[in-house]
Design goal:
The complex is a heterodimer of chains A (338) and B (177). Chain A is of the alpha+beta class and 338 residues long. Chain A has helices spanning 49-61, 89-116, 142-153, 218-237, 295-307, 318-335, and strands at residues 2-17, 24-30, 36-40, 68-72, 123-126, 129-132, 135-141, 158-163, 180-195, 201-211, 267-272. Chain A folds into two domains: 2-13 and 181-335, Aldehyde oxidase/xanthine dehydrogenase, molybdopterin binding domain (Aldehyde Oxidoreductase, domain 4, 2-Layer Sandwich); 17-162, 2-Layer Sandwich (Aldehyde Oxidoreductase, domain 4), CATH 3.30.365.10. In chain A, 31% of the residues lie in helices and 26% in strands. In chain A, the strands form three sheets. A four-stranded mixed sheet of chain A has the order 1-9-10-11. In chain A, strands 4-3-2-8 form a four-stranded mixed sheet, covered by helices on one side. In chain A, strands 5-6-7 form a three-stranded antiparallel sheet. Chain B has helices at 22-29, 85-93, 102-115, 121-127, 139-154, 158-163; strands at residues 2-7, 10-15, 48-51, 54-57, 70-72. The chains are: A alpha+beta (338), B alpha+beta (177). Chains A and B meet through α4 of A and α4 and α5 of B.
């Protein structure tokens, strides 16, 4: 019969390694019409990184994400970026872009301070305007300020910056130091049914709670969490590369390397923890890889809750789960005194 | 052999070797590269197109089998008035990430909505079970199909009517997923 089980697993994940240089560079240029161009070496792989980076640049400049044109992934024209790896893009490239945008904004503030007759420290960039803090009516459109910077003051608003997570070398004796820029945390709960006659596991629901710092784009964070749970589910129950004795892969096709389909995928409830990290751009950290870390552990804990067996080798296929259930039954029968 | 199909409302012909698949006909002879070559053996669904109202893997159908039939590809969905509701919803809700599976997923969804205008979640999951996606976990796609179904039912504008494939009886001979 089907037995219901629930399992929980938590994780932390390090973001922004510092054992080797891990920099991102960025150039931000504000155009004469108040739009901006961002140059970054990172690449978009579908996760929405360029959207998030546009939002970061736009927030720093007080304009809209649609006003940002990003040039990316071209090492001839763009500054160096360590890469779209290690869940580092929002955190490290985002910091570089925020710093470069702030430098360009400082030039706008110098021009606007003459136009508005106030000190640069009293200015803020918001709603397509450079305005006096606390007196938003006293303002100048960014397009006007930018045009003036280019044509009158002769100070085109261009910022460039790079960011490399601050390093604390590891002590050779104790191994202690600061190996990563920051850390993210998550807990996931899986609710499953295990058929104790076949060993088949069906995941019904996964609730995933993630601390990713400020969620700059919550919709994309959800997308990363849902995709991560899906990959974690495949890792937990289905996906395994098999080799023969000569090292040839036995299951090189998608008919025999089984990954989850819509019929395997449970409902995922994403919960984004309210959080702010001082070291990240506008408080953001990361979400990509961390989203799949706790899933397999939550599912195997749920299997234990449902049928009382510990699965210690993945994937927890029906064969493995059934073998564990049978072994447990055999053990229990042995223990009954004659 | 000569093959003539009605593709996205246009009658087109090509002379192809008999072993040519519908996918090769579309991509290499008609330059409609929206249907993707993924596994090319019918496992992944990235090449899904609609043939006479049914979603099929274009890599598993010979061009000759499609002769005389009506084929709709992803290129046939958008009109001058804008994107098809499925495309619009998928774009706005982040239902696709890398996007390689997208044309296939959208065509499977369209074939479903043409047949069942207001599908249940189980029906959507069934219809998309042959489309593999490595990025998204499918959830936003499933929600997106629900949303597009609502849009299609509430606003039956001329633009959306024009893209609707007329429902035809199921053809038993078609390779179906």
């Amino acid at each position: 019969m089907k037995r219901r089980g629930r399992g929980i697993a938590s994780m932390w994940y390090p973001v922004g390694f510092t054992v080797a240089a891990n920099p991102s560079g960025a150039v931000v240029k504000v155009n004469e019409d108040g739009t901006a161009v961002v140059l970054t070496g990172t690449v978009e792989t579908g996760q929405g990184a360029l959207g998030v980076l546009s939002q970061i640049a736009a927030e720093a400049l007080g304009i809209a994400p649609n006003d940002i044109h990003i040039v990316s992934g071209d090492t001839d024209t763009c500054p160096m970026d360590t890469g779209a790896i290690a869940s580092r893009t929002t955190y490290i490239t985002g910091n570089a872009i925020a710093a470069a945008a702030a430098e360009a904004r400082d030039t706008l503030f110098e021009v606007a301070s003459q136009m508005l007759g106030v000190k640069t420290s009293q200015l803020e960039a918001k709603d397509h305007k450079i305005q006096v803090k606390g007196f938003p009516a006293r303002s100048a459109p960014i397009a006007d300020v930018a045009l003036r910077a280019h044509l009158v003051n002769g100070t085109p608003p261009i910022g460039s910056a790079s960011w490399n997570p601050p390093t604390v070398p590891l002590d050779p004796e104790t191994g202690q130091g600061k190996p990563f820029g920051t850390y993210v945390y998550a807990t996931q709960i899986a609710e499953i049914d295990v058929d104790d006659e076949t060993g088949e596991v069906e995941v019904l629901r996964v609730t995933a709670s993630h601390d990713c710092g400020t969620a700059i784009n919550p919709m994309l964070v959800e997308g990363q969490i849902e995709g991560g749970v899906f990959m974690g589910l495949g890792f937990a129950l289905q996906e395994e590369i098999l080799f023969d004795k000569q090292g040839r892969q036995l299951n090189p096709n998608l008919t025999n390397y089984i990954m989850p389909t819509t019929l395997d995928m449970p409902v995922v409830e994403s919960d984004i923890v309210d959080s702010y990290d001082e070291t990240g751009p506008f408080g953001a950290k990361a979400v990509g890889e961390p989203s799949l870390v706790p899933t397999a552990a939550a599912i195997t804990n749920a299997i234990y809750d449902a049928v009382g067996v510990r699965i210690t080798a993945l994937p927890a296929t029906a064969e493995r789960v059934l073998a564990a259930i049978k072994a447990k039954r055999a053990m229990e029968q042995k223990q009954i005194p004659a | 052999m000569n093959v003539t199909i009605t593709v996205n409302g246009e009658v087109r012909s090509a002379s192809v070797p008999p072993e040519t698949t519908l996918l090769v006909l579309l991509r290499e002879h008609f330059l409609l590269t929206g249907a993707k070559t993924g596994c090319d053996v019918g496992d992944c669904g990235a090449c899904t197109v609609i043939v006479d109202g049914k979603a099929v893997n274009a890599c598993l159908m010979l061009a000759g089998q499609a002769d005389g039939r009506t084929v709709t590809t992803i290129e046939g969905l958008a009109t001058r008035e804008g994107l098809h509701p499925l495309q619009k919803v998928f774009e706005e809700t982040g239902a696709l990430q890398c996007g390689f599976c997208g044309p296939g997923v959208i065509m499977s969804s369209k074939a479903l909505l043409d047949e069942i205008p207001n599908p249940t979640t189980a029906e959507i999951r069934n219809a998309l079970a042959g489309n593999l996606c490595r990025c998204t976990g499918y959830q936003k796609m499933i929600e997106g199909v629900h949303e597009a179904a609502e849009m299609l039912q509430s606003t039956t504008t001329p633009a959306t009517l024009a893209t609707k494939t007329p429902a035809t009886p199921a053809l038993a001979a078609l390779p179906q997923r």
